[in-house]
Specification:
Blueprint (H helix, E strand, L loop, with lengths): L26 E5 L5 E8 L3 E7 L2 E7 L7 E7 L3 E2 L3 H8 L11 E11 L5 E9 L2 E16 L5 E12 L14 E15 L1
Antiparallel strand pairs: 1-4, 1-11, 2-3, 2-11, 3-6, 4-5, 5-7, 7-8, 8-9, 9-10, 10-11
Length: 194
């Protein structure tokens, strides 16, 4: 999710066909929070990375007949942030960072899918944090389709992006001076056929 947006108009002929993706099934897929992770990392004092994750989230992937017309929506509960340090987690929940009392959710809504380099994809969308919405682009690596519990169809992928925290009003208060502006986000997602 880079905060640099690039819009693209759909082409009449898809650059990727469903036939090129073994196991591809058009329709709605629900993100499985038990087998998925939303993680982030930010540089501290310019020398080390502080890592964390969000434990409560949900989302839906709608795969279209033309894969490049598919869509994604997701909602993340901001209070579920965890960095394995209680004092730091409470500070991140405060008005200096995510201000969870006023903004209990972050949301993502896709606006387009493009073919990326090699076999990957680019997922364009809008990320809303602290009431600020910015365009973002995720580099998406599709791991494939398979069968899960009771034969239910599953899909897995990894998506990465970088955002500027100040673009979303996340200053960090006095601690903000010790943190890098760029946050790396990594999503490891498993979804099952709804």
């Amino acid at each position: 999710m880079t905060t640099t947006s690039s819009s693209s108009s759909p082409s009449p002929e898809p650059a990727v066909s469903a036939a090129e993706l073994p196991g591809y099934e058009p329709g709605a897929w629900a993100i499985d929070p038990v087998h998925s992770e939303i993680a982030f990392a930010v540089r501290h004092l310019g020398v080390a990375n502080v890592r964390g994750r969000f434990d409560e989230f949900e989302g839906e992937i709608v795969l279209a007949e033309n894969p490049l017309e598919s869509s994604v929506t997701a909602t993340i509960r901001t209070a579920s942030v965890s960095t394995a340090h209680e004092q730091r987690d409470n500070h991140i929940r405060s008005a200096d960072f995510l201000h969870v009392e006023e903004f209990p959710e972050m949301t993502f809504r896709s606006t387009g899918v493009r073919s990326g380099d090699g076999e990957g994809f680019l997922l364009d969308g809008e990320l809303s944090v602290r009431g600020v919405t910015r365009p973002v682009t995720l580099d998406l690596e599709l791991h494939g389709f398979g069968k899960g519990y009771e034969g239910r169809s599953v899909v897995g992928f990894t998506a990465t992006t970088r955002i500027g925290r100040k673009d979303f009003g996340v200053t960090g208060g006095t601690v903000g001076a010790t943190l890098g502006d760029t946050i790396k986000i990594t999503l490891d997602v498993e979804a099952s056929r709804a």
